[in-house]
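Workshop exercise sheet. Pairs work together: one partner reads the sequence aloud, the other fills in the structure field after running the prediction. Swap roles for the next sheet.
Pair: D.N. / O.F.
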Amino acid sequence: MHYSSNISNPERQLNQQKKTSCLAFFGNTIRKLDKFGHPITMTYENESTFKSLFGGAMTILSVISIIAYLGVNLQTAISRS
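Structure field:
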């Protein structure tokens, strides 16, 4: 049996491109936040460090963890007063 789709092939390609560009945008944004990038002797895309998606995600988690830790300690210190 052959089922026909309501979306034509060009529309399907456009939808796939939108999804890909959205994922690429978020991936590049997180990659730019990477504070764990390793220095390289030559430049890579005009950057002195190589930044990765994993490093960007770890940077975000580190910042959130530090803020949460400081918030809990501050709340504890205030409640003792």
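Discussion prompt: The mean pLDDT is 81. What would you look at next?
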